[in-house]
Design the sequence.
């Protein structure tokens, strides 16, 4: 049995390749049927090796003459099996090496592809971040513009309220200002509420002031001019200003507009553009 086992064990490789004579094959199969654990393990191993070869490396099939060599070796009772095994092992080693190389290359390709994808996504993320930053900046601008608009509307609303407060007063007085020689077509009007000591002034068709100059409104108390503030013009030559307090309004005799250096003057120095006399009544 043991002697038989040693010989049969060496024929398992040839058996896997279908290279045994029928009686040799039957002898091995009956030995395996008797339950030789070691031979069964070798057989399983060999089968795996042989099965893996055609799939992994097509070129590594056993040479066609191998069967004949094995048959010859067996029939002449040469001890040929170890050579077959080592040939198979070499084939497996070559196949394994090739598989490992292929796996390495696949891994490298995958790594490159992954790196490239990461670079792309990093660039993409950068671009996305940039566009987000731009969008945020745009939104911030819009918020600022919106806030300015609200502020502008609020101040316009306040202005309208001041006008309404003046105009709605039952004691409202209106003083018209006429354009003088420097600009005869210009006009102005003061809505004046003596009880509330408040007034709104409007100017129309004033020429745009030269740079460094500004129009200034004056109230004349007797013949004494009192500063009522500078005002700017819009593109149509319209301007307005609120006169918060008209102290000693009973003494007011006239309103006037002169062209003064920017920021205004303590006393009028430039040409007078508008003049309106307060009629007593
Ligand atoms: Zn055995």
Sequence:
């Amino acid at each position: 049995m043991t002697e038989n086992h040693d010989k049969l064990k060496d024929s398992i490789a040839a058996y896997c390749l279908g290279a045994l004579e029928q009686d040799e094959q039957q002898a091995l199969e009956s030995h395996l049927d008797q339950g030789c654990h070691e031979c069964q393990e070798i057989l399983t191993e060999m089968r795996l090796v042989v099965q893996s070869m055609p799939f992994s490396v097509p070129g590594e099939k056993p040479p066609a003459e191998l069967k004949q060599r094995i048959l010859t070796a067996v029939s002449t009772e040469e001890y040929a099996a170890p050579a077959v095994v080592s040939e198979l092992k070499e084939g497996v080693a070559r196949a394994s090496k090739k598989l490992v190389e292929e796996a390495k290359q696949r891994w490298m390709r995958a790594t490159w592809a992954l790196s490239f994808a990461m670079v792309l996504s990093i660039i993409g993320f950068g671009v996305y971040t940039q566009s987000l930053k731009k969008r945020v900046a745009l939104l911030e601008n819009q918020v600022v513009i919106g806030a300015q608009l609200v502020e502008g509307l609020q101040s316009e609303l306040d202005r309208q309220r001041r006008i309404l407060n003046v105009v709605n007063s039952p004691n409202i007085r209106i003083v018209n200002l006429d354009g003088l020689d420097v600009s005869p077509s210009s006009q102005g009007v003061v809505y004046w509420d003596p009880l509330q000591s408040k007034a709104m002034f409007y100017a129309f068709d004033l020429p745009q002031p030269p740079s460094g100059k500004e129009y200034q409104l004056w109230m004349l108390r007797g013949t004494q001019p009192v500063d009522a503030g500078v005002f700017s013009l819009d593109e149509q030559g319209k301007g307005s200003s609120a006169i918060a307090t008209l102290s000693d309004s009973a003494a007011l005799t006239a309103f006037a507009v002169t062209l003064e250096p920017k920021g205004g003057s303590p006393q009028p120095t430039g040409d007078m553009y508008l003049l309106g006399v307060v009629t007593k009544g």
Remarks:
- The chain has a mean pLDDT of 80.
